[in-house]
């Protein structure tokens, strides 16, 4: 049997607050995605998901990419970058025009999208994704291609995902400093949703919670698309900082305790389980001079921070309209999802079914990069390999950073409609 041939190289870069990850994948002639190389480096110069020191961040990017290139045996000069912070927001711009019962032509589609120009009020932000939803005829939706049909009124909702211009520009400049051209900047919930959610979940309605190191993104999918998102300025690293501060130890030791012994669930044995620490790492000292804490003490600190995060998540879900039907599920992913018992804790606190989302759809992923912490990275590859229409097109710093970006977007929409229908 002949081995599948790689027809296209896809490169992804995820610049997070705790780590920078690069992935080089190949799309074969059979449509499969295969990992060719991965790289990971401790993140420096990134604060709460945004670039704060470009020189330090550029070094982290360069080292992660070089590692992936060595493993893959190829060099890359273009990447797709994920963005997880920076004033992320989304909106639906409804558009409807009168047709008088005539047959719908391409010119009517053009007029419809041009009429929506006033609705695309960017409020000074950059549009990262501009995606038309299904069309409606006389108020009845669900029409994929209305050309050739008759209607009195033709409408469509244009879905736009926005971000503040400066964080987007800083990501682009950081990649360029590492000699990489940015093909696309993809909002992390969209990428992560492709990697962790099933098509049925996205269609029926699901909330995606990405708990990263310093931020937590809460997004809602319904009808197959992202319909709302909000960022919480807390994450798993805040749990680590709480442990370090409470017990007077180094962050590295606090992180080790959290990962190996920490849990979001309590058991009666926790008060008997004593964790011995190195003297230089602090903690309560017993008669023999050895620092020690109980597992119950450790988990009490973890519970306190998680409860704060869950409380904010609940408020965000209510704000996004994710309420009512009890069948709606929450999918928890990101590095914070690797804490023991966290899904059960979330489920009890939020009163909804919660599962851990792990990335799927790409073969050859190393075991170290197959967990929830790498969902966005895998999702970026799947996004670039998919045939979905994103009318925004490649990143163009000179276009949509401007306040008058709506005109350029409308022209792209017109062009994409002509090419795809």
From TrEMBL:
Organism superkingdom: Bacteria
Subcellular locations according to the entry: Cell membrane
The keyword Lipoprotein belongs to this UniProt entry's keyword annotation: no
Limits of the SHS2 domain: 10-196
HAMAP family assigned to the protein according to its UniProt record, in alphabetical order: FtsA
Family, similarity comment: Belongs to the FtsA/MreB family.
PANTHER family reported in the protein's UniProt record: CELL DIVISION PROTEIN FTSA, CELL DIVISION PROTEIN FTSA-RELATED
Protein name according to UniProt: Cell division protein FtsA
Upper taxonomic lineage: Bacteria, Pseudomonadati, Pseudomonadota, Alphaproteobacteria, Sphingomonadales
């Amino acid at each position: 049997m002949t081995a599948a041939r790689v027809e296209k190289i896809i490169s992804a870069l995820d610049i997070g607050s705790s780590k920078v990850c690069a992935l080089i994948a190949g799309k074969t002639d059979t449509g499969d995605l295969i990992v060719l190389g991965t790289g990971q480096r401790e993140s420096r110069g990134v604060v709460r998901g945004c670039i704060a020191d470009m020189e330090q961040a550029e070094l982290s990017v360069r080292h992660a990419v070089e590692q992936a290139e060595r493993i893959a045996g190829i060099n890359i000069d273009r990447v797709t970058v994920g963005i997880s912070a920076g004033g992320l927001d989304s909106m639906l711009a409804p558009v409807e025009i009168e047709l008088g019962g005539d047959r719908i032509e391409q010119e009517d589609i053009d007029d419809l999208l041009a009429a929506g120009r006033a609705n695309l009020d960017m409020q000074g932000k950059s549009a990262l994704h501009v995606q038309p939803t299904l069309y409606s005829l006389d108020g009845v939706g669900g029409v994929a291609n209305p050309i050739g049909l008759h209607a009195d009124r033709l409408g469509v909702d244009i879905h736009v995902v926005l971000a503040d211009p400066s964080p987007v520009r800083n990501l682009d400049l950081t990649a360029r400093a590492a000699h990489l051209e940015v093909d696309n900047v993809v909002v992390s919930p969209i990428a992560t949703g492709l990697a962790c959610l099933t098509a049925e979940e996205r269609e029926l309605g699901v909330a995606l919670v990405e708990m990263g190191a310093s931020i937590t993104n809460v997004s809602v999918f319904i009808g197959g698309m992202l319909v709302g998102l909000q960022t919480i300025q807390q994450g798993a690293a805040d749990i680590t900082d709480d442990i370090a501060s409470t017990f007077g130890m180094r962050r590295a030791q606090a992180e080790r305790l959290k990962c190996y012994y920490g849990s979001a669930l309590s058991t009666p044995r926790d008060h008997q389980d004593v964790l011995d620490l190195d003297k230089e790492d602090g903690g309560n000292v017993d008669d023999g001079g050895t620092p020690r804490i109980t597992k119950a003490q450790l988990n009490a600190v973890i519970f306190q921070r998680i409860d704060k995060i869950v409380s904010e998540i609940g408020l965000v879900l209510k704000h996004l309209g994710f309420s009512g039907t009890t069948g709606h599920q929450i999918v928890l992913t990101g590095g914070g999802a690797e804490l023991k018992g966290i899904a059960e804790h979330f489920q009890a606190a939020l009163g909804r079914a919660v599962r851990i989302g792990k990335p799927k759809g790409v073969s050859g992923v190393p075991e170290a990069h197959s967990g929830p912490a790498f969902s966005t990275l895998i999702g970026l590859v799947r996004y670039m390999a998919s045939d979905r229409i994103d009318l925004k097109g490649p990143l163009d710093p000179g276009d949509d950073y401007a306040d008058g970006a709506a005109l350029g977007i409308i022209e792209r929409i017109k062009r994409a409609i002509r090419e795809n229908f």
